[in-house]
Every structure is written in structure tokens, then in C-alpha cells.
Amino acid sequence: MKKFIAKLVAVTALMLLGGPVFADELNGANTSWILTSTALVLFMTLPGLSLFYAGLVRSKNVLSVLMQCFAITCVVSVLWLIGVYSMAFSEGNAFIGGAANFFMAGVTEDSMSGDIPESVFAMFQLTFAIITPALIVGAFAERMRFSSMLVFSAIWLVFVYGPVTHWVWAADGWLYNLGLLDFAGGTVVHVTAGVAALVCALVLGPRKGFPHTQMPPHNMTMVITGAGMLWVGWFGFNAGSALAADGNAGMAMMVTHMSASAGALTWMICEWVKYGKPSALGAVTGMVAGLGSITPASGFVGPAGGLMIGIIGGFVCFNATNIIKLKLQIDDSLDVFPVHGVGGALGTILAAVFASASLGVFSGQGYNEGMNMLSQLGVQVVGVLAVGVYTAIVTFGILKLVDAILGLRVSSDDETEGLDINQHNERGYDL
């Protein structure tokens, strides 16, 4: 009788707290955390990334960057509803999802994704889909037509982001079943955005005056404000990817913070040694490098692993930025490829090196516990190369298509005047 009463009390307590009584029932704690994470990741784009990028450009283009991030959010949201969510996560084949959830068909108040509502899962994943093409904005800032940017972003979402997401995160995706470790988007978000950014920079060509004309950020206060928002929002990005309010989420949050801190400090030290002084711009860029590097590994490593990935990410991305900008003279305006692309690829590979099975975080991630480190390293490299090559080829094709239809760049005179006036007939700042 005492055991029966104890069980009855435990079940009642779980029901009141929103915990699961059976596996298929809604977990209130997990649902609350993913709702919060969804808001945090959207906060990364609006206003975090928007302010970060807007502060980095010249004052005559600040409004154009803000408008691009805002408009991408709207376009991606509508396309996600129409069909990209279904392409990414519905049951299909190894390369693309089916049409079962077009226009969110079947997504009701009662439909579940694990122990959270499917509507919450779909919204959480939407915020990832929003920030990925928004990251690419940094590559073509200050010189791309607004109309071309919208069309490019829409087509890119359908033909790059949707399929790659299915490869990596859908249960029938080929990279998922190969055993790729990508907890929160090293390949899905950072490699795709970084590689696409590099292709954009090469196809569009440099900004007028690059590399001989100095183009410093117009407002570092805005940059650091946006960077702080990115740091906070990233906790939803990585810890939210546990899809549960549990120890895995807590560990992901801890290693994310440590990697961001280590990346910032490493970049500062590199600047101190190379140039004699550390810069605020370098500190926040190093932070983003640390965050991008830890993203794919955040659910698989411990605090020491997070620290090491942040240090390595900060050092490698610092040197990659100098090589791209100074030696190769590629005008990736806001360093999207050397920070996000290189950082995401590096972190995806390092996930195999620093992953710790003792943390018990591999369940449901496509990880094959029979693999040794070398085998897992091979899988990680295959994942990075496959996503990178596919993204590069398709992005190039989309850019050529858009250029043929609309033209990619504004005119030389319009670039001199600034995109705020000639694309939006408004000014972000009085000049």
C-alpha cells in the first residue's frame, strides 16, 4: 500500500510539473526550454547579427544591412511554412524530405516531435534557417542589389539549406546515418554560410576601392552591442539543440561559454603579439570564432574540450582572416568565410577528437559508438567536404542565374552614394 501511494504521488508530481508520465506525452519543462531557446536564436538575428553587421559597414550602408537581415527573416519564415520545413525534416530519402508537411500539414496542437509539440520544434528549427542566409549578408555587404539579395536568399534556402539539413539532422539523412557529429549546426549553418559567402565574394568581386581604401567599421559600439546579443542568443542555439531541459543542455551551455571566452582571449593575444595592441573588433570576432567552432561539438565535449576548441578556433580563424583578406585579397566584407566557414569546419572535425562518450550525450545524434576516433574523424571530414562542395557548386549556379535575370551588383555610382539611399531611399545616418 505504501509503495502504491508513493508511486501515485510521484506520477501526480510529474504531471503537475509537466514531466512525462509516458514517453509520448508532452514534457512541460522541455517544451518551456525550447520555446525560450527559439526566442534566443531569433534574437541572434533580430537584433544581434543585424547590429553586429550594421556597425561593421560604413555609415552610408548601415540601413541596407539592417533591412537585409530583417527581410531575410520574413522571406525564410514564409518559405519554411510553404515547404522547406517539410524538405528538411519530413520522411523522404537519404537526400531530401518528402511533401508530407507542406504548408505545415499535419502540424497541429497535438502533434509531437519527441516529447515537445511539433510546432515548437518547427519554430526552433526555423530560427536556424533564418540566421544561416543572414550570415551570408556579410560577404556581399555594401554592393549587392536588394532585389537580387532577396531572390538569391530564397533560392539558396530551398536548394542548399533544406537538403543539407535533411542530410545531417533527419533520421533518414545520409550523413546522419553515416554517423556525422553535428550537434547544433557546424555543417548545416556555418559551413554552408561560410562557403556560400566565399563564393559570393569571388563572384561579385571586391568593393570599390578594396584593398587600397580603408573601410573601418562606422560604429564599434553597435558592433559590440550586437556581439553581446549573439553571445547570449547562442545559448539557445547550442543548449537548445539538446531538445530537452537536462544535463546535456547544461553541459552544452557551459562549453559554449568557455569556447567563446577562449576564442576572444586567443584572438586578442594574437593581435597583441602581431600588432602591438588588442582591438575591440578582434575580441568580438574571436568570440564569434569560438562560438562557431564549438557549435557542432557542443553536445559531445566537456569543459576542457570546449576550452581547447575555443583556443584552436580563435587562433586558426585569426590566421585564416589575415590570409583571405591580406594575402589573397578576397573581399569577404565582414569575414564570414574565415570566421564561420573555417570555424564551423574546424569544430566539426575537432568534435571527433574531443568527444567524450562518458558524458552520455551521443544518443539520437547518429553517432556510432563502435567507431574509434580515427573512423569518426574520417566521417567528420567526409561531412565537411560533402557539404562544402555541394554548397559551393549550387551557390555558384544560383548567383549566375540571379545575375542573368536581375544583375547582382549596384552600379559604381550607386555604390559610391551608398545603398541606404539608392536601394531604400532612406538614410540610416545623416552624412
Structural write-up:
It is a single chain. By secondary structure, the protein is mostly helical. The protein has a single domain (30-102, 111-424), classed as Ammonium transporter AmtB like domains (Ammonium transporter fold), CATH 1.10.3430. The protein is built from 15 helices and two strands. It has helices at residues 2-17, 28-56, 62-89, 118-140, 146-169, 174-178, 186-204, 220-239, 247-275, 280-294, 303-327, 336-354, 373-405, 412-417, 419-424; strands at 112-113, 116-117. It has a two-stranded antiparallel sheet. Strand 1 and strand 2 form a beta hairpin. Helix 7 (186-204) runs antiparallel to helix 12 (336-354) and helix 11 (303-327) runs antiparallel to helix 12 (336-354). The protein starts with a helix and ends in a 7-residue tail after the last helix. Residues 1-23 and 360-367 have low confidence and may be disordered.
